[in-house]
Every structure is written in structure tokens, then in C-alpha cells.
Amino acid sequence: MPNFQQLGVDEQRVKKLKEQGIAVPTPVQTESIPLLLDGKDVIARARTGTGKTLAFMLPILQRIDPKRAYPQALIIAPTRELALQITEEAKKLTAGEPDGIKILAVYGGQDVEKQLRKLEGGRHLIIGTPGRLLDHLRRGTLELGGVKQLVLDEADQMLHMGFLDEVEALIHALPYRRQTMLFSATMPAGVKQLAGNYMNQPADIVIKGASPIPLEQIKQVVVECTDRSKQDALRSMIEEYRPFLAIIFCRTKRRASTLNEALLAHGYQSDELHGDLSQAKREAVMKRFREAKLQLLVATDVAARGLDVEGVTHVFNYDMPHDVESYIHRIGRTGRAGGNGMAITFAAGKDLNDLQRIEEGISLRLKRVRYDSHAGNLRESSGGFGRESGRTSKARKVTALETDNERGQARARGERGTGSGRARSGPSTGNRSEAGRARDEKPRREGRSSGRAGSRTVAVSSEGRSSKNSTGQRGGRNSDRSHSKGQGGGRRGRGRS
Fold it and tell me: Of 57, 63, 50, 121, whose CA–CA distance to 91 is shortest?
């Protein structure tokens, strides 16, 4: 495995990486960096948590000329949170440079006039969301004629969220001669078409031996319940598993707020994340969650897109996702970068059709348990919705709810149950940090937070070995373009909401 210097990264950036404790490049970095430094277009299929941000950021920073005070690189991300994460990484790599690269994050929820003043001051690297970038472009306050490097990060999510028109409008404002980098967890038809229309003979980098989201590393369970008993069922699962950090997904902002209020009322360290919050509030919530000052984050799908928070051990689908893609991206917030995680989905009778579609999409029948609202406990499911029947399993509690295949994988890995403690790396991990143990011994205080061209494919295994071939697709660039993250489980609440 080569080091960063051998990949062509300059000494200044290598020093910054070492200061952050980063010495060995990941497979996607190993394959991407040399190609990008050479000016090639690249498509990289890699999930969040595999080091893809550094894969494109290092070459971009190395090719920017600080003496030229205009935007030279543009990074488009689907959400404000992801744009801020990328911006933080870029600033770490440029910190302390007296006449260094100037970076600006452009996203909704910020003061437009403040953004305008920063743009007028000259910025070399612009990182932003499609809507706000396009707004500045139409105002005439963002000039993209000097951009030579374009990154489309989480491209599949941008299209899933309906940003195709905005992305294409931004691309049309860029110079014809430029380098384009596309990073995506999956490669649906829309992303393929986008790449075919706007990339020039891109190298296609694929991580072999891993699905875009590591489903095999995530234990998945369905809890059958009524919608009325869902809050009780959720609290029961939190008490059972005592997650270190957990994200709870709701379909709407109103349901997220209502659930967060209920969790706070029962003494849990929780907060909400959705589009109605101010940007300052969103950033404060995420800071507390990353620092493990919050245990539970109640979020909507859009607000949590692209979040990469270390230590998320559990994902709860409080509301059933409507489609397979949303399910996969929700549960992918846990089990990151080789770790283990657990996803628990609550299903009422009305959710049966959506659940069946999800199971078909992931080719897996999920393990089911039933929440008995009268007894206040979990039972083995009898397979039918709308009735609370079945015998309570005393010998086999939910902590051991695995398929035969999952148990075999667990034995092969030598995993242990978490017992009553909290674990940073997942529900089946036995090792915990000193900080984690200290948090367990000292309960947390209650309270809430104030043209289409031939594409070379580089197939990369998890060990970094690669092989290359040609796909032989044809086409050309679009000719219309112009110059342009308490105590485990919280304090136990015995009441009912």
C-alpha cells in the first residue's frame, strides 16, 4: 500500500494529514488521487466513511493557484450539513497558510449579504448546495468562468432529492475544458446519464467486495406495533439496547418535533434536526451530537442526508421509509467504515406494503418481533399485523434476535453482546473507550439543547488491489456549456406518552 507522498500528494498536505493522525490512504484514495492529480475525470463509487472527501480534496487543493483571486474549484453537495463537513476538511488542510487558499461554503439558511461580501473578497474554492449556488449565479454574484475543477458529491442523493435541473444549470455555467469528479454510493440510471453527458472519458473506480451501504454489517429488526404504541415501543428498544448514539428517523418535521418533545419529557438526551431550524441551531445540534452530548437525534430524511458521524450504533426507523433507497441510506448512518451497527424499523399494519417492497429490494426477510402494548414488552411475532399474539420469549430476548446466518457471522467474528453497557462501535462490540466508560459511570444530566466517452473501470478490493478494463461507451460532452455525525439509554422513563 503506497503512502500519500507516493501517490503524488505534496509534502505540505502530507504534514497536515499526519497532524490529524492520517498516514495510510484508503483504497478509494489510492486509486483516485493519482488520476485526479493528472487531470483525469473520475467516477468513484464509494459510500460515506471510506475517505472519499480526501480523495478529491487533496488533488483540488494542490492544483489551485492562491495568487489567482477567483473561484477555481466548485464542489456541489446535496445538503448544508455535508457542505459544512467538506468545508471543515478543506480548512483543516489549509490551516496556518498566510497567503493560502480561501474557502467559502455557500448554502441556504445563511445571510445572503454576508455571503456576497465574502464572494467579493475573492474565494478560490466554493463548496455549496445546488439551490443557493444557482441563486448566486442568477444574481450575478457568483462567477464560474475560471472554474477548472468540479466535484459532484453524493450525486445519487442530489438526483433523489430532485436537484438535477439545478446541477445541470450550474454545469452549463462552467468552462467546457475542466476536470469533473463524480462521487456516489450508488449508480442509478440518472447518475449514469449525468456522467455520460458531462464527463470526458472518466475512469470508473469501484470498491469490490462491499455493497454501497454495508448491509451485512448492520443487524436489521422489524418491531410490529400500532401507531399509537410506537413511542412506548421505541422507548422499550432504547432501554433494551442502550445505544451510544442513535438517529431516529421521522417522515415529517412535525412528527420529529413531537417525538423529540416526548423523549425529552421522559428524560432522554434528545434533540431534533429538520428543515425548520435555523442554520445556527442546526449546527449547534450537530456539534452536540458529534461530541456525544446528545444520545438521540430525531431527524427527517432530508436533514440527515450525507451525515457522517462517528459512533452511531443504532438507527431507528420510527416511520417506515417509502422506498428501498431511503431505507438503505437511513440505516447506512450506522455500520460505518467497517464498524457494526443495528437498524430497528417500527411497522404498523398500514406499513405492510412498504415493508414488503423494502425486503424485496434488499433480498432479505427481516426478523420480526411484536411489541405488546398491554404487557409493555416484546414478543416473538406470529407473522400477522394488527393483533398482539404470540408467546413471550424469555430465553431469547431481542438482543439475540438474529437469523441463523447472522449468528454464524457473529460467531465467526467472535462478537460479544453489549449487555447493559454502551458501546461506541456498535451493538455487538465489546470494546469501549475510557471516555465511554466514564460516561457510563457518570449519568448524563437531563435537559434539552438550547461527451459520453469510453470509461476505464478501476475495480478495487477492500485491500486496495485493482484491475482495469474498458467499457467502450461512446458520446461527447454537452456542447451547450458556456464559460462557467446520559447514560446509555437515557434516564428510564416509566410513564406512557
Answer: 57
Percent helix, strand, coil in the chain, to 5, is: 35, 15, 45
Amino acid at 407: R
Tally of CB atoms within 10 A around 120? 9
Look at residue 301 and give its three-state secondary structure: helix
Please, which residues have CB within 8 angstroms of residue 149's CB and are 6 or more apart in sequence? 59, 60, 63, 72, 73, 74, 178, 179, 181
CA 289 to chain centre: 14
351: which DSSP letter? G
Amino acid identity at 377: N
Q: 183 pairs with which residues across the strands?
A: 44
Q: How far is CA 27 from CA 33, 44, 50, in A?
A: 10, 11, 8
Which helix H or strand E contains 223, and what residues bound it? strand 218-224
Q: Average pLDDT, whole number, for the chain?
A: 77
Q: How far apart are CA 424 and CA 432, in angstroms?
A: 6
Q: Whole-structure pTM over 0.70, yes or no?
A: no
Question: What domains does the chain contain, in order, with CATH numbers?
Answer: 4-200+454-470 (3.40.50.300), 215-441 (3.40.50.300)
Sheet holding 73-76, edge to edge: 103-106, 125-128, 73-76, 149-152, 179-184, 42-45, 203-207, 456-460, 466-470
Q: Tell me the per-residue pLDDT of 218-231, one tens digit each, with 9 for 90 and over.
A: 899 999 999 899 99
How far apart, in whole angstroms, are the C-alpha atoms of residue 181 and residue 195? 9
Written as nine digits, the cell of 172 is: 452549463
C-alpha cell at 174: 462552467
Predicted pLDDT at 47:
65
Q: Could you report how far apart the first and last alpha carbons of the chain are, in Å?
A: 54
Distance CA 13, CA 34 (A): 15
pLDDT digits (tens, 9 = 90+) for 48-73: 667 889 999 999 999 999 999 899 99
pLDDT in tens, 331-370: 888 876 566 899 999 999 899 888 988 888 788 889 999 8
Q: Determine how β-strand 377-380 pairs with β-strand 367-372.
A: antiparallel
* C-alpha–C-alpha distance, residues 446 and 265, integer Å: 10
- What residues are paired with 297 via a beta bridge? 247, 271
Whole-number Å distance between alpha carbons of 114 and 136: 12
Cα separation, 439 vs 293, in Å, equals: 10
Spatial contact of 421 and 488, defined as CB atoms under 8 Å apart: yes
pLDDT score for 383:
54
Pull the grid cell for residue 222: 422489524
The alpha-helical segments, DSSP class H, found in 242-278 are: 253-265
What is residue 128's three-state secondary structure? strand
Query: Rounded to whole angstroms, how far apart are CA atoms 429 and 417?
Result: 7
Return d(Cα 198, Cα 478) in angstroms, integer.
6
d(CA 111, CA 90): 22
Grid coordinates in use for 353?
Answer: 406494503
